[in-house]
Amino acid sequence: MADRWLKTNCLLASATAFWLAALSPLPQIGKGISYSLALVASVQLVGESRRLIAQDARRAALSAMNQELEQVEIGLHTQQQEQALYEIYGAAPTYPPEVKEELTTSLEHLYKEPSADRSGETSASTSVDKAFYLAIVGLLEVKGETYVIEQVLKLGGRRWEEGKRRLQQILQQGREQEWD
Fold first, then answer.
1. How far is residue 22's CA from residue 33's CA, in Å, rounded to a whole number?
2. What is the pLDDT of residue 106?
3. What is the rounded distance in angstroms from the CA atom of residue 82 to the CA atom of residue 79?
4. Distance (Å, rounded) from C-alpha 171 to C-alpha 134?
5. d(CA 81, CA 63)
6. 108 vs 102: CA distance, rounded Å
7. How would you write 26-60 as a 3-class SS string?
8. Which of 2-6, 32-36, 174-178 is the most confident on average?
9. Whole-angstrom Cα distance, residue 58 to residue 52?
10. For 5-50, what is each residue's pLDDT tens digit?
11. Cα Rg for the chain, rounded, in angstroms?
12. Which of 48, 63, 43, 46 is nearest to 3 (CA)?
């Protein structure tokens, strides 16, 4: 690899040197020879560069394939370990019948029990919506509508109209809830 880079750099230096020599005050025959050698060195430089680029691309592709193979191998090994654990412990834990019955009844009581504190769930989502609304209003004042639609709602470009509608819905919800 290093010898290809060295060869490429030497060809580049020689092509440049021959070209500059042709520009110096030389007789016509000297200029012709210098231009010819510069042209030959440039053609070889292009060929060597193509081989170098192909070699780098091949090396990068092999590296990517090796990484993918390692990830697949890790995934396969993990799957085999999970399968072995599944075979050892079975599909579900086996409890004695009395323990299983007790667990079932306690879960039924928990499920059927009326919850007195269900309003906390809606107030948490409402407070998140209110914070989002207030942040949107603040950004509208500082950055403007374009920034909010493109950067916050991520609906810029072809989805601009959808973003504008979504922003209007958020602002309308805030006005209806009187979050100002």
1. 8
2. 73
3. 5
4. 9
5. 27
6. 10
7. CCHHHHHHHHHHHHHHHHHHHHHHHHHHHHHHHHH
8. 32-36
9. 10
10. 899 999 999 999 999 999 999 999 999 999 999 999 999 999 999 9
11. 36
12. 48
pLDDT at 120 over 60: no
Structure-block tokens of residue 71 = 């990830």
Nearest one of 92, 89, 101, 177 to 132, comparing CA atoms: 177
Token pair 């697949």 in the structure block, residue: 72
Length of the chain: 180
Look up residue 56 and give its two tokens: 């780098």
Read off the tokens for 35: 């231009």
pLDDT for res 121: 47
Q: What is the pTM of this model?
A: 0.41
Whole-number Cα distances in Å, 33 to 20, 26, 27, 41, 111: 12, 10, 10, 12, 95
- Looking from the CA of 45 toward its CB, the CA atoms found within 13 Å total 15
Task: Give, rounded to a whole angstrom, the gap between the first and last alpha carbons of the chain.
Answer: 66
